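User: For a benchmark we're assembling, each entry needs the component sequences followed by a predicted structure for the full assembly. Here are entry 17's components. Please fill in the structure.
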Amino acid sequence: MTEREIAMVLAVDETGGIGCNGKLPKWNNRDDLEFFKTLTTYHTVIMGATTYYSLPEKNRPLTMRYNVVITRDPSKYFEINSFVRFTTATTMPELTKSLPYFYKKKIFVIGGAQIYDMLADQCNTMYVTYNKGDYNCTTKLDIKKYTSNYLKETVLVEKATYKIVKYTEPKNASPA
Ligand SMILES: NC(=O)c1ccc[n+]([C@@H]2O[C@H](COP(=O)([O-])OP(=O)(O)OC[C@H]3O[C@@H](n4cnc5c(N)ncnc54)[C@H](OP(=O)(O)O)[C@@H]3O)[C@@H](O)[C@H]2O)c1
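Assistant: Structure for entry 17:
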């Protein structure tokens, strides 16, 4: 049986920066946004509460995706929308329990830093957009720590200002 894709998706600058003062850096990369949307649409996206509330109000929950938001206190948040679930779960089996049928084919962990750190070793795939330049980020990742867990890397897109790489074949098999 083919293993379900459980993937981390992230974009970094040359310093490992992923966020600036609680927001995404101003990548101005429409192609990458389009790539993210195509990749994740009709699937489940998992994120931390900080990332969820950093999305512009009109864009949350992310449309045509089932949104799972990790928090230590779901009672702090209240949203009437059947496409978002707040949870204290921290493991992939708990996080993916009872997902709506239509959205459970693939699972995408979409940040931020705390959630990548928590779930990296429970993923079996990773998509990284490497943006050229230094965006003076306040949130950074040691990206090599994550990519070194994979045996295979495939360059999906290579442009002057960015490239997108897919990592597969995790050294430690995913539990999911
Ligand atoms: N470049 C990219 O690809 C990318 C992607 C996503 C996000 N980002 C950026 O990353 C930054 C946010 O990252 P972040 O690390 O500050 O926040 P985050 O990972 O998005 O969310 C942190 C929150 O998750 C919850 N959480 C963390 N650990 C938990 C645990 N063990 N159990 C239950 N809940 C837990 C807590 O929510 P409560 O406080 O509600 O308890 C915590 O405040 C932003 O700047 C965002 O724009 C970048």
